[in-house]
Amino acid sequence: MAWLPPIFFIRLQGVCKRWRDILNEHGFLRLLSQLPTHGPCFLITQKNGDIWHSAMYSHPMRQWHSLPLISTPKKAHSLIASAGGLLCFSALVGRHDELFICNPFRREYRQVPDMHHKRQLGFVNMFMDTKSRSYRIVAAGDYSYLGGNNRAFPTEVYDSKSNSWAIYDSVPVGILHSSKSAFCNGRLYCLTSYPCGLVAFDVDRGLWESVPVRMPHSLLDAFLVAGEYGCLLLVGRTGLYSVHQSMRIWELNLQKMDWTEVGKMPHILFNGWLKSIAESFQCFGNGNCIFFAAQKYQKWLVYDLMKKCWYSFGGCPLISGSPGKSLKGIFFEPRLDTLVHQQ
Questions:
Q1: Gene3D superfamilies from the entry (predicted)?
Q2: Which spans in the chain are helix H?
Q3: For residues 198 and 214, is the Cβ–Cβ distance under 8 A?
């Protein structure tokens, strides 16, 4: 049973009480944690009223799967991070954000304790410790002050093992973007704007540092991806004065402090995927797989770095049910053994 694709666990829970109890036994969950992961998946969510709908695309199975309604409080308004089978949602309460952790395969959620400095978060990301199966959340900035006098709030890190926040006085330079960050080799890398560049947060030392690397020429928009074997990938759209655009992939060479191009989207595929030079897109991934989402036309691509192959896929069940509504996409690793409440 443990070797079945994770999507089958949802179906098995509805067979009978005995099977549902087996799936929640400590021994079974421990066995799951020792097996290889299912592989890269792409999760999209959509909120209708107070209800979160979701669907998952499994790259190993080349198939979409509708998931049960995500269990979160009604006030949760944004999906902001994902790691190790868990999703992180935020809810704006007054002038500060509250965070919630959810495992959609277990249909469980919990609220994260309040930070020491309550704020409307400008940056949030999370990562998983694969050995202890515990998770951490890194929070920085104050979004409500981006347009005015920016207050230098300290960076705070939540550890699920201690169920508490630690405060670090280090403050990043520039405006951070949660969707443009990646955890790699004990450091949380993030692209910044104003000024444009790359910064990294050393989790063990609690310190933000500027990475002295020049960004590729004519870079219009970019995202970071944690690649295989600890490498950091930059995925970006390049072009001169919004013409002759292309999508390229670079790997960071820490010794030379330079970006090395390792992939490029074929021009015909790029023009068919993005209909307009001004159209926005999303990019996320992990390891050898990078997902691309065109937000306006809801078209998806995946690039396999190892095989050097491009795949396109559609047929998302959320689009057929609610056409025209905005969808949020994120990289997702389905896991039944990751618990939101940890000891």
A1: Kelch-type beta propeller (2.120.10.80)
A2: 7-12, 17-23, 26-34, 267-273, 317-321
A3: no
